[in-house]
Amino acid sequence: MNSYRSSFQEGLCFSAAHIHTHLQGPCTVHTYWVLPLNTSATASLPTTSLDTNGNGTTTTTTTNGSTLKATAPTFSPSSSHHPSKYHSSSTASAIHAEHEYAAHNYHPLPIVFARAQGSTVWDPEGNQYIDCLSAYSAVNQGHCHPALVQALCEQAQRLTLSSRAFHNDVFPKWAEKIKDVFGYDMVLPMNTGAEAVETAVKIARKWAYKVKGVEKDKALVFAAAENFHGRTMTAISMSVDPESRDNYGPYVPNVGAVCPATQKPIRFNHISDLEAALNAHGPQTAAFIVEPIQGEAGVVVPDDDYLTQVQALCKKHNVLLICDEIQTGIGRTGRMLCSEWAGIKPDMVTLGKAISGGMYPVSCVLGSKEVMLTVEPGTHGSTYGGNPLGCAVSIRALEIMEEEGLTERAEKLGEVLRKGLRDLESPMITLVRGKGLLNAIVIDETKTGGHSAWDLCMLLKSKGLLAKPTHENIIRLAPPLVISEEDIHKALGIIKEAILELPTLKGEKEDAVIPKEEKNVHIHVDN
Asked: Where in the chain is CATH 3.40.640.10?
């Protein structure tokens, strides 16, 4: 069960050899050695040759004379770290090219990922880091999990795309797996989290007209203030964040986090705000969409009874409760769905990110037959939604969660991380909050010697830990669920060192690598 995690302690080899059994004779195969965390990333590693024969068996022989059976494949840059034509040769060249040729819709930390395994990342120069962001909780199962790579490669050789114009033989198995894991009648597949949210809003409106009997084009969908549901027009129409909304209007009507009757925001974790909105607009309201923990707002954990009260209000007014579990789901908070902490079952759930382990974009909406069957053929869909490649990877990603006990692991290690952060007793950290391995620290910038949370993240980076600020003074800490307890303690040690050093800022400064016109840009919402 723990073979994947233990590989980081022992240093194992993963090869793509077995998927090439149709080849005849010797050929060269790139083999990826997973090194222990304290091993130099630039260490000399053996090369590997592969011999395939007519009966489909394979043998790999390394230059040190040992013979290894080919195991689960992991595709990555070769062990010598020489970049191919697809890879930037250095951190500097990658950052320069991205700045010149890509739209500036992100303000990334100046670190370039060249390869990754588990909770460890390497840059093009071979420097090693602990990942405490997990691609916004998309790689809960760890970067490049060998079993996920194997599932991807095997399905890629068989069938990648059918569209929904035809049936394929993987999508129904995935739909059945989703039902078994999450307990909902039906699933509608999409690709990205924002698409799942858009889909849920569309379905809720359709349900309101066909089932609830709301007057045509009058249905309302409410959200909680400070939410993050994506970057599409519907998502930003529900947002109250100026950086997300400014200069993108006009917005989608009848969706949002403001009560039309009172013109007041519906604050997260303030049940009276939702009660006022539903008392005023209940007959016209299709749904209330909410994150069980607000991630981009700074990992804001509501009161234990908040979601229970939300569900009761929604039932009272015949309003669908939609839980956006795109970031909080798939074991991240110590439960398969974060809403389980409240003991509720929402009417609809949106999932994405780690449902495919960061290997391939997959998202979906879950709901009852009453809700989901309001969508007729031809009224909603996606060319790639339900594609066999994504479905195969997603099935394996969900299996890994169970096989490796990652949900339980997240709960246990989250307690270790939060206790360690609180034990730092630093006046710079005003609050530690989170559930499972979705956590955040709130920085008091009056105690940092004039430095920002961004500067602290730069200092952490210089010491080998990757984290990112959100809402200016909040730093999210959400490592892959496969991280070892040893690395949790190592991360805590790095954070302690950085907090002590921050007033003198001994780490790399932002303006050393970020273009001058972009320095000190504080992003309110970072996803």
From this structure: 195-351
Is the pLDDT at 38 greater than 80, yes or no?
no
Where do the CATH 3.90.1150.10 domains begin and end in the chain?
A: 91-141+406-518
Placement of tokens 């996803």 in the chain? 527
Helix, strand, coil tally for the chain in percent (to 5): 35, 20, 45
Tell me which residues are annotated as active site: 228, 324, 353
pLDDT tens per residue across span 107-146: 999 999 999 999 999 999 999 999 999 999 999 999 999 9
pLDDT for residue 503 = 85
CATH number of 91-141+406-518: 3.90.1150.10
Which is more confidently placed, 67 or 262?
A: 262
**Class of residue 28 by CB neighbours under 10 A (exposed 0-12, middle 13-18, buried 19+):** exposed
Among left, alpha and beta (phi > 0; psi -120 to 50; other), residue 134 is left
Angle between helices 171-182 and 388-403 (to 10 degrees): 30
CA terminus-to-terminus distance, the chain? 32
At 296-309, the pLDDT tens digits run: 999 999 999 999 99
CATH: 3.40.50.300, 3.40.190.10, 3.40.640.10, 1.10.10.60. Which one for 195-351? 3.40.640.10
Could you give the 3-state DSSP secondary structure of residue 54?
A: coil
**What pTM was estimated for this model as a whole?**
0.84
Token pair belonging to 86: 């697809």
